[in-house]
Amino acid sequence: MFLTIQDVQKNFGNTEQVLKDINLSIEEGEFVSLLGPSGCGKSTLLNIVAGLLSPSEGQITLDNQKIIKPGKDRGMVFQQAALFPWLTVEENVMFPLKKEMKKAEAREIAHKYLKLVQLSNYAKHSPHELSGGMQQRVAIARALAVNPRVLLMDEPFGALDEQTRSRLHHELEKIWIETKKTILFVTHSIHEAIKLSDRIIVMGTHPGRILKEIRVDIERPREQHLEKMAEYEKEILNLLKVELDKVENEELQYASSY
Question: Per UniProt, what is one GO molecular function of this protein (predicted)?
């Protein structure tokens, strides 16, 4: 299997267990979403895959190579675009390439990916001249410019308005189809996960763990199959409701013991 998460646990301090018994295999070219309530460890797991955090137990391998630190084989897109305000759009996309190649080659690659995200005409603009959605497209272009094998996305559209978010769903799906990148995507949005994913990993909390893996068997574009999407949404809502009810009962029992 291309990307393998095996028996991963993550603790912060001596008592707080954030992730428990995470086992997941992802095929090359697959679009997989991590979905669950706040506190279920979605972003923590993504950061472990990125090499920004280490698991307390277990391991993650990419093409049979153990992940122990960040690497060019994984590109990261965060909720905020995190662009350098003193650099142009073009220079932001070129930034991770500067140490690897000559400036002219880096610029050529930057323009290739700016064209892919439909921002070629904004190469010389500053980030503050762009909308939030356009800034996120620059961040995606920057992540793709290093040609990663896996694109890691941590709620990249969470701060955007619904109209912009919907438009970027369409853009991301086009990019994924064209580049054939493996994408691991963190989201709170059930609709977003169903719309974009081949497979959804529904996570529970206290501690974070996998409740169920759901393969989304709907033809793309999925907006043409709203009834089927609604069926998946109902299934996921029921799963999460049971989980949240369980957490509330545990908290009530804990409070009543004092």
Answer: ATP binding
